[in-house]
TrEMBL record:
Any one cellular-component term (Gene Ontology): maltose transport complex
Signal peptide: none
Protein name per its UniProtKB record: Sugar ABC transporter ATP-binding protein
Protein's organism: Devosia elaeis
Coiled coil regions in record: none
High-level lineage: Bacteria, Pseudomonadati, Pseudomonadota, Alphaproteobacteria, Hyphomicrobiales
Keyword Nucleotide-binding: yes
Topological category with respect to the lipid bilayer: Peripheral membrane protein
Length: 327
């Protein structure tokens, strides 16, 4: 069992309370991703779970055991950071075997575990290379492999892909998705800025806002039924259109839910972003912000066009003046 239970957790740095009354239940084998704006406390929460930071209040349990005062090395966790910090003078094989060697594990067991991790991460051809002879994505896979070899109950990732270029990010993200399938018992907690990583990898996403949990749900739940304006504006790229009424309530419409060409509303195309498979048209509808409309290539309007538009009423998200969902 490697479930994680966080109860009324608080974390202060001096007088500043960075995490405020966090409650979370992460199930054994679940892949949970923390997202939220810069400075909201994602990394701090992950570091509290890992034991790299002491918590200031509340309780933290891993596998049914309270670990508030258990050091990081005794929590059965492995952590992968954005900087992979491999030993440069050791081969890939030696880097991956190192922690088991320190524990004086039998040589044959080390070989089997390293070979198994290398297979899971497609690293077998590189076992005799040195880190300098690898790409960034391969190095990050070695860092992940080094963690797998330790056979942790819980895997913690702190923005593991953020130092990689776009193509490597995609490739390494797929490796992590495959890793998750091959380690169904291992609980994984992952911090990212990247919406695509969160939406594609997570069983559940935790949205943090200024040190509090704003909403927890599957990617689909967060996308389809954001419970607050904050989550509505945070999840989804491009952002949901949020139209404020005079009474303080807000109507939210996703860019892909707007249909151009007919309907009771009208706007003038202010500019268009062409992305290949689709385009975003930005309409001036007399509000502070332009209305974003996602279009497939064949339907792209031109700048200056006055267009009619409509949206299905069942796709509209409504929020009260306090920013809470009402429909
Ligand atoms: N060791 C520390 N001492 C004092 N303040 C800290 C310390 N570590 C983090 N903080 C503060 O705690 C808050 C949360 O930081 P944290 O790194 O957890 O945010 P984050 O959500 O991971 O942000 P980012 O997305 O920018 O990495 C920030 O305001 C940060 O300045």
């Amino acid at each position: 069992m490697s479930d994680i239970k966080v109860t009324n957790l608080r974390k202060n740095f001096g007088a500043v309370e960075v995490l405020k009354d966090i409650n979370l239940d992460i199930r054994s084998g679940e892949f949970v991703i923390f997202v939220g704006p810069s400075g909201c406390g994602k990394s701090t929460l992950l570091r509290c779970i890992s034991g790299l930071e002491r918590i200031s209040g509340g309780a933290l349990e891993i596998g049914g055991r309270v670990v508030n005062n258990v050091p990081a090395s005794k929590r059965g966790i492995a952590m992968v950071f954005q900087s992979y910090a491999l030993y440069p003078h050791m081969s890939v094989r030696e880097n991956m075997a190192y922690s088991m060697k320190l524990r004086r594990a039998p040589k044959t067991e080390i070989e089997v575990r390293v070979a198994d991790a290398a297979r899971k991460l497609q690293l077998a051809p590189y076992l005799d290379r040195y880190p300098r002879e690898l790409s960034g994505g391969q190095r990050q896979r070695v860092a992940i492999g080094r963690a797998i070899v330790r056979d942790p109950q819980v895997f913690l990732f702190d923005e593991p892909l953020s130092n990689l270029d776009a193509a490597l990010r995609v490739a390494t993200r797929l490796e992590i998705a495959r890793l998750k399938e091959s380690l169904p018992q291992t609980t994984m907690v992952y911090v990212t800025h990247d919406q695509v990583e969160a939406m594609t990898l997570a069983d559940r996403i935790v949205v943090l806002n200024a040190g509090r949990v704003e909403q927890v749900g599957t990617p689909e739940e967060l996308y389809e039924r954001p419970q607050s304006l904050f989550v509505a504006g945070f999840i989804g790229s491009p952002k949901m259109n949020l139209l404020k009424a005079e009474d303080g309530t807000t109507t939210g419409i996703r860019p892909e839910d707007i249909n151009l060409g007919s309907g009771p509303h009208r706007g003038k195309v202010a500019y268009v972003e062409y992305l290949g498979a689709d385009s975003y048209a930005f309409l001036d509808i007399g509000q502070d912000e332009l209305l974003t409309v996602r279009q497939t290539r064949s339907e792209t309007p031109q700048v200056g066009d006055v267009v009619s538009y409509d949206y299905p009423v069942e796709r509209v998200h409504r929020f009260d003046a306090q920013g809470m969902r009402v429909n």
